Amino acid sequence: MKIFSASQLQKADKISIDNQGITSEELMERAATRAFNEIENILDENKTVKLFCGIGNNGGDGLVIARLLKNSGHKAQVYAVNYSDKRSNDFLANNQKLEKMGLKPIVLKAEEDFPKISAEDIVIDAIFGIGLNRGIKGWPAKLVHHINHSGAFTIAIDMPSGLFSDQVPSENDAVIKADLCLTFQGPKLVFFLPQTMDYVNEFKVIDIGLDKQYLESLDSSYEITGRLEAAAIYKPRKKNTHKGNFGHTLIVGGSYGKIGSVILTAKTALKSGAGLCTLYIPKCGYIPAQTAIPEVMVLTDEGEEKLSEIEFDLEPDVICFGMGTGKDLVTKEAFGRLLERTKKPMLVDADGLNILSENKELLESVPKNSVLTPHPKELQRLIGEWKDDFDKVNKVKSFVKKYNLIIVLKGAYTFVFSGEKVFINISGNSGMATAGSGDVLSGVITALLSQGYSPENAARFGVYLHGKAGDLASADIGAEGMISGDIANYMGRAFKTLI
Ligand SMILES: NC(=O)C1=CN([C@@H]2O[C@H](COP(=O)(O)OP(=O)(O)OC[C@H]3O[C@@H](n4cnc5c(N)ncnc54)[C@H](OP(=O)(O)O)[C@@H]3O)[C@@H](O)[C@H]2O)[C@@H](O)CC1
Ligand SMILES: Nc1ncnc2c1ncn2[C@@H]1O[C@H](COP(=O)(O)OP(=O)(O)O)[C@@H](O)[C@H]1O
Ligand SMILES: [K+]
Fold it and tell me: Any idea which positions bind K(+) (predicted)?
């Protein structure tokens, strides 16, 4: 699923109206009816719905929903948030229809007009949608705070009012915090950025039937990775195969006290379908590694407690480097030599990334199309500071183009940057905020590379599977109870959800 900008959606609205031979009022009726159906599904009859409608088309949607609520016997109170005198035509038409039914919106013009909102009420926020073009000021801003402080379950129509689709709100801007956002045609980029995601606790996409052909023709860098997209990448195993068909992964990492990290990565690689897996670790890790995973082969470095040589006599299909290595000079130099010798795309994580950040000249030697998996702090060391999330996204886009790499920017929503594309993953949960879950992610992506997935697909699919395994683990044993090894243990079940 592509993510469109507000201006693309506004244009798609117009083109769909023309192509389908309908009026904009009819499109509004269709969009709002579908939103109403979702609302009705979750509505408890005893609840009072308080609808706050602006005077543009977002407000028009709110008025349609009010009419449908009233028609189906719900308790609804409608407020027109009179932030200006420029009512849109479709607002006016729907206002008339509502008045004919005897439901006249109460016009709010100042703070004194605000109604009481109880925590038991349901609030529908239809004040501003994608037409927002400046921060909300004055008494409407106070209304937003009034709604946010009420404790009422708040459903935003299309966008939480006050949230821009293409910029981060400033500290003083008032923005609705939506428990649920019913968003038209596709999610908006701001739903996924760390600085703005908290305004949308949950979202549901309402297909309002815009022209499919036109939407498909639109360019967008941003795409969602959900179950459908993951299933399209998945290559089921053939019957007539042997372990050599699924690749040999070499996982290089670890140091004294941090051998667990590479063990987790290797275990996950095997649990994600890698045919063979070799661990290359400092000597101190030999017995723990052999004991923890009998299925893995272990090679040891000359270094007792840290990597100092990285010399091996085998030809792996993919190399993964960096978890738990530390940044010692001997390790850095050995990593530099490894980079010189490696031609196939590899995966670099954790201290591997920190070494690259401190020695930027090494970036030139990272094989093209390699996958780098930073969390935000590691990213900052790699690319420097950013002003806000939009600036960050642009900086990462330039970085991946400059070095021909793929960046997996980890977070509650993980972003995969590849060429011009940015893939946003929607699986996963807060139970994954636990030590070692990044090591597990490296294991999945490495295993997919070894099985012949392209680096872009390995990154995108690996991130999805990692989140899905986390979701299955959380459903079974709870977010607090799960540890990163559980994510590895649920990997097979995550694959199975795609069959
Ligand atoms: N047929 C369609 O197109 C369909 C559209 N649909 C719905 O329409 C929504 C978009 O509607 P919209 O374009 O009327 O804009 P909306 O968000 O209601 O804002 C209204 C006006 O407010 C103004 N304004 C902006 N910021 C402001 C501020 N801070 N403080 C004060 N005023 C401010 C600004 O006007 P300005 O004052 O700048 O001239 C703006 O135009 C969309 O989200 C979806 O819900 C669906 O029904 C599907 C069919
Ligand atoms: N709240 C969350 N929701 C979804 N995924 C999360 C959340 N918090 C962390 N994760 C995932 O867990 C992993 C954490 O990686 P990282 O920070 O490198 O951990 P570690 O260094 O402990 O291995 C990432 O893949 C990240 O996307
Ligand atoms: K809204």
Answer: 58, 125, 161
> Tens of pLDDT along 271-298?
999 999 999 999 999 999 999 999 999 9
Query: What is the per-residue pLDDT for 384?
Result: 97
Q: Which ligand is nearest to the CA of 159?
A: 3
Fold annotation for 230-496: UDP-N-acetylmuramoyl-L-alanine:D-glutamate ligase (3.40.1190)
Give the mean pLDDT of the chain: 97
Atom number, ligand 1, closest to the C-alpha of residue 64: 47
Of 217, 177, 161, 193, which Cα lies nearest the Cα of 12? 217
Closest Cα to atom 40, ligand 1: which residue? 131
Helix (H) or strand (E) holding 135: none
- Beta carbon of 198 within 6 Å of any ligand 2 atom: no
Q: Provide the residue ranges of all domains of the chain, joining segments of one domain with +.
A: 6-218, 230-496
Q: Which residue's CA is minimally distant from atom 8 of ligand 2?
A: 433
* CATH code at 6-218: 3.40.50.10260
Is residue 411 annotated as involved in ligand binding? Answer: yes
Rounded Cα gap, residues 223 and 114, in angstroms: 40
Q: Looking at residues 356-364, what average pLDDT do you find?
A: 97
Distance 129 CA to ligand 3 centre (A): 5
pLDDT tens by residue, 217-276: 999 999 999 999 999 999 999 999 999 889 999 999 999 999 999 999 999 999 999 999
**481 alpha carbon – ligand 2 mean position (Å):** 15
The number of the ligand nearest the C-alpha atom of 141 reads 1
Pairwise CA distance, residues 157 & 122, whole Å? 13
Cβ(416)–Cβ(446) below 8 Å: no
User: Cα(80)–Cα(87) distance, rounded to whole angstroms?
Assistant: 11
pLDDT at 44: 87
Identical fold at 6-218 and 230-496? no
